[in-house]
Amino acid sequence: KKTPLGGSARKKAYRGTVPVYGALPEDTGHPPPSPNDSSAGQSVPAVASRVGPPLAIGCFVAAGLASTDLSVLASNPLVRDSACSIVAVVGAVGWLKVWTSLAASGAMDSRLSRKIIHCGSGPLFLLVWPLYSLEPNARLVAALVPALNMARLVAAGTKRDSSDIVTAVSRSGDAKEVLGGPLLYCAVLLAATLFGWRGSSAAVVAIAQMAIGDGVADIVGRRFGKRHKWPFAPSKSYAGSIAFAFAATLASFALLRWFQIAGCLALPFETTDLLARLFLISVLCAFTELVPAADDNISVPLVAAILATTLLR
Ligand SMILES: Nc1ccn([C@@H]2O[C@H](COP(=O)(O)OP(=O)(O)OP(=O)(O)O)[C@@H](O)[C@H]2O)c(=O)n1
Ligand SMILES: C/C(=C\CO)CCC[C@H](C)CCC[C@H](C)CCCC(C)C
Questions:
Q1: In angstroms, what is the span from residue 91 Cα to ligand 2's centroid?
Q2: Where the protein is mainly located, per its record (predicted)?
Q3: Does the CB atom of residue 189 touch ligand 2 within 6 A?
């Protein structure tokens, strides 16, 4: 299709009307702005406000990185640890957003999305641990991830922030609820980071039991455990507890192996021996989950940590 202005005449006309754009239409693939286009002839700040703060921040970070020697950054442990924590914090926001959006769109039940968040958050955080530097302070930088999430939950639970974290993790949509199970969950991640860290099989097993064991018990129990309930815990089913024991064993095993492969911890057990020990821990944690005395986000990882300290050394 022929255009009214072609070749150099069009370039000249375009240069004349759009002082803030460095690129010509041929460079950008976009058509030239019409005389009515509100961006034509605007100043840089006006255009920046149109494209929005995220792009401005992105440009700022990119310009900073471009003017810095990246090899110096990569070899600096504090920079490396901060980068890991930034990735984890941003990842956590995206992770919650994905499941909340799926629930909001009707693609899945919000109880299921909440349980998937419960199952995935702790193990995903564990996967990041080996990427931190060997510095003793690395765990402090890593601890910022659950600490910041706790701050978000407290802000949301005390209504100082109407964040959609409430939609993601509260059962009923009541903001105060995030100060219960979800806050304890993050507190366990914080304690495991500060007092266990990646050389501790107890920290890894405690997180796997709390996240995967308890989460899978709920997901499976609700579907397959409607009829056969425990006599002393009428809301919980055999199916849920069996699923807890098997899923938590496999998750603990896989995460421990990941830490072994990454060179973070050494375990003196053959595969079958390790699996048997983890199964014993998981069965006992599945029984702990049936006890209504304490929140299972505290009781399960506590029992798991004690058992792992005794059985995995
Ligand atoms: N061993 C289990 C554990 C859970 N469930 C199912 O999962 C539901 C929720 O269990 P539970 O995690 O104990 O509920 P809450 O603590 O109330 O919820 P949450 O942990 O999500 O805060 C139960 O009603 C039951 O249907 C089950 O069948 N068997
Ligand atoms: C619904 C939950 C518990 C109820 O029993 C889980 C709450 C999850 C937190 C609000 C989010 C926690 C995020 C982690 C601290 C970091 C995850 C990082 C990872 C890379 C995604």
A1: 10
A2: membrane
A3: yes
- Alpha-carbon radius of gyration of the chain: 26
Tell me the C-alpha distance between 157 and 306, whole Å: 31
Q: What is the CA(186)–ligand 1 centre distance, in A?
A: 19
Cβ atoms of residues 235 and 221 within 8 Å: no
> What HEC string does 95-142 produce?
HHHHHHHHHHCCCCCHHHHHHHHHHHHHHHHHHHHHHCCCCCCHHHHH
Asked whether 169 lines ligand 2 (CB < 6 A), one says yes
How many CB atoms within 10 Å of residue 60?
10
Distance, in Å, from the CA atom of 275 to the CA atom of 127, rounded to the nearest integer, reads 20
Query: Around 181, how many Cα atoms within 13 Å sit in the side-chain half-sphere?
Result: 20
* Residue whose structure tokens are 């090899």: 71
Tell whether ligand 2 has an atom less than 6 A from the beta carbon of residue 121.
Answer: yes
Ligand nearest to the CA of 113: 2
* Tokens (6 digits) for 186: 């993050």
In the 8-state DSSP scheme, what is residue 55? H
- Please write the tens of the pLDDT for every residue from 79-104: 999 999 999 999 999 999 999 999 88
Other Cβ atoms within 10 Å of 48 Cβ, number: 15
The predicted complex's ipTM stands at: 0.95
233 pairs with which residues across the strands?
230
* Cα separation, 182 vs 166, whole angstroms: 10
Report CA(144)–ligand 1 centroid distance (Å). 30
Q: Evaluate: CB of 131 within 6 angstroms of ligand 2.
A: no
Pocket of ligand 1 (CB under 6 A): 181, 217-218, 221-222, 225, 235-237, 240-241, 244, 289
Tokens of 17: 């009307």
Cα torsion angle, 294, 297, 298, 302, sign: positive
Q: Which two tokens stand for residue 33?
A: 């702005």
- Ligand nearest to C-alpha 185: 2
